[in-house]
Amino acid sequence: MSELKLPTPEAIIFDMDGTLFETDTLLIPVHHRVFETLREEKLYEQETPPVERLLSCLGMLLEDIWRQVMPGSTEAARKRADELLLQYELEGLAAGEGELYPYVEQTLRHLKESGIKLFVASNGLEEYVKGVARYKGIAELFDGLYSAGEYATASKVDLVARLLQDHNIHTAWMVGDRSSDVEAGKANGLLTIGCAYARYGRAAELDGADVLLSDFHELIILLEQ
Question: Of 81, 87, 108, 115, which residue is the least packed, with the fewest Cβ within 10 Å?
Answer without folding.
Answer: 115
